[in-house]
Every structure is written in C-alpha cells, then in structure tokens.
Structure to design on (358 residues):
C-alpha cells in the first residue's frame, strides 16, 4: 500500500498546474504572404502619370547637373591661377556632379517603388542545368521584366535615363583636360611635360631662400643636421596669377648639412656642394610627392606617399621603395656676402620617372 500511495503522490506532483501552457506536437503553420496592398499608382491612372513625369524629370535634371559641371569647369578655369577660381571650380563642379548622380539615384528608386510591378512571385529552384525549355522560359522572364518595368514601353523614362547616364560621364571626361594643358602662343611648351620638367626657374647666381617667406639663406646659418625647405629667392615675388604654384612645384628644394667627410661624392659633383651642405629636389622621382622627412642619424630622406628612401650622403640614391632614380641635385655655391646661391639649374629633369625624358 505504501508503494501505491507513493506512486499516486508522484502522479499528482507531475500533473500540470491550472493556467500553465502545455506543449503540443502540432507543427507551426505557414501563415503565408500578407494580402497584397495596391499602391496609389496601381489604382489611380493620374497618380501613375504623375509618377512617370517625376521620374523622367529627375533624369533630365541629372542631365542639367552634368551640363552645369562642364560649364563650371569652363567658367572658373583653374589655369588662371586665381585662388578664388580654384575654389569656385572645385565647389561648382562638385555640386553639379553630386546633383547629377543624386537625381539619377532618386529617380531610379522612385521608378522601382511607384511604377514597376510590385507583385510577389515565388520561383522554385531546379536541381539540374536548364534545358531548352528552361532557356526559353528565361527569355520570357526578361520579356516579362521589360513589360513590368515599362522600360521598353515608357519611352520618356527610358530615353531620359539613357541621357542622364551618358551625361553623367561627361564631367569626368572634361576634367581630364586639365591633366594635359594645350600649347599656346604665350606658352609653347604648356602641353609638353618633358619640356616643362626639364627646366625650372633656378639660374646661376640665384640665391636660395627659405620657404615660404623668401628670406635668403647664409651658409653659416645652416646648422649640422638641419633640413631647410628652400625656394628660389625671386619666387616669393611672383603672384599666383603669374604661375607661382607651377614654378614652386618644380623648383622646391631640400637643403641639408652633413660633415664633409660623410659625403660620398663623384669627381664631377664634388663642386656641387659647399662645406657639407647639399641641395636636392623635393619632388619624388616616383610619382611626384614632396620628399620632406629627413632622418638626421641615418641621413635618409623619406617620401611619405609610398615610402621611397634616398641616401643623402651619396647623391640621394634610392635605397628603398618604388622610386626609379635618385633625386636631382642642385649645384650650389656661396656668393661674396656668404649667401648660398645656385650654380645652375638642375642637370636633369625633376619629377616622376614615368615621363619620357631626353
């Protein structure tokens, strides 16, 4: 009896309490897709026409934005050298391109949401390669997509989209013109990079000056281990309109002083330095970045763009990185007043090595 009583007690203990949920073995039923809700453009032909007008208007506005970007490039030429033109050029071209791309994006989204078919479809995946019938069905699917999107039928949307996409490329093509200026009667070598980089404004007897204030540099003021950023003295007198930036980009120099016995100089270049002071172009021979980092202990110059390194003790030869040749050396001397002066221009072209050089 005791055992029977214990069994009944256990049965009562495992009975579910009132109000508690009981697990069931029936699987969860698929609720299916919610009822399709028609859009306003599906129910009202006027709303559909308004949506179509909105889409092709946005595409044509994109065309206008692209045209404006090209016009801004011509209205505010950066070749003028005026800082205000450079700022306006960047701002208005950027606004035009941004507006053109934004209008295409908004128009495409509005087209897909308000005009294209929004009915739900379920397509079963087949386990094998498609047969001829499957391929024909695929062709039919493309035809159905064309019909549902209205791309072939709605000519205003189609034509405006094509025009917007074509026009959006034009500003980029136009901007490429600035990479290769054309020759002019005033500047017959404007479009010839070989001629432009073969000569700078350095001339015999021209004083070396500090960048950017143009103060001439005395040899006695250059301390051991110093690295001084240098420009030609007459450069500080030029305005931006007179080509200041263009001339500076080619003529910038880095001046350093080492112990004379640390320099490893070839016979023809021993006269190019003065009492351990050497001057090299700051324009990296890889892609033209400014070489402005000097390690005093190793006497290495470092280009921060792609990590090319040059050895100042031995004619700035390349010791690491992608640069293809040493930095051009500017021959220097000292005038009667103790100021550092150039003996001549660089003896080789400055700048990247990918330009063809004579």
């Amino acid at each position: 009896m005791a055992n029977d009583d214990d069994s009944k007690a256990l049965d009562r203990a495992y009975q579910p309490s009132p109000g508690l949920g009981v697990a069931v073995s029936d699987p969860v039923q698929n609720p299916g897709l919610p009822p399709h809700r028609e859009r306003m453009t599906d129910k009202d032909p006027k709303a559909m026409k308004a949506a179509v007008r909105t889409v092709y208007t946005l595409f044509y506005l994109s065309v206008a934005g692209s045209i404006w970007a090209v016009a801004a490039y011509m209205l505010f030429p950066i070749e003028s050298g005026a800082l205000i033109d450079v700022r306006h050029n960047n701002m208005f071209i950027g606004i035009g391109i941004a507006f053109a791309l934004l209008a295409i994006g908004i128009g495409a989204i509005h087209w897909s949401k308000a005009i294209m078919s929004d009915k739900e479809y379920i397509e079963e995946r087949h386990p094998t390669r498609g047969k001829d019938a499957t391929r024909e069905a695929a062709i039919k699917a493309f035809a159905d997509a064309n019909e549902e999107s209205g791309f072939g039928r709605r000519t205003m949307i189609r034509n405006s989209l094509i025009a917007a996409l074509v026009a959006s490329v034009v500003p980029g093509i136009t901007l490429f013109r600035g990479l290769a200026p054309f020759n002019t009667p005033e500047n017959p070598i404007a479009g010839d990079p070989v001629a432009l980089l073969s000569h700078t404004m350095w001339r015999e007897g021209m004083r070396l000056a500090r960048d950017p204030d143009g103060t001439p540099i005395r040899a006695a003021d250059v301390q051991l281990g110093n690295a001084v950023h240098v420009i030609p003295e007459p450069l500080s007198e030029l305005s931006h309109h007179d080509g200041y930036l263009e001339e500076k980009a080619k003529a910038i120099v880095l001046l350093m002083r080492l112990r004379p016995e640390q320099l490893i100089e070839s016979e023809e270049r021993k006269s190019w330095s003065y009492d351990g002071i050497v001057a090299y172009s700051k324009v990296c021979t890889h892609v033209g970045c400014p070489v402005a980092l000097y390690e005093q202990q190793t006497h290495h110059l470092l280009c921060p763009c792609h990590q090319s390194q040059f050895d100042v003790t031995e004619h700035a030869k390349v010791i690491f990185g992608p640069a293809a040749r040493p930095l051009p050396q500017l021959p220097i001397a000292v005038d009667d007043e103790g100021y550092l002066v150039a003996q001549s221009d660089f003896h080789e072209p400055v700048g990247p090595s990918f330009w063809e050089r004579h």
User: Anything to note?
Assistant: The domain at 193-342 is CATH 2.102.10.10 (Rieske Iron-sulfur Protein). The chain has eight helices and ten strands. The chain has two domains: 43-120+136-179, 193-342.
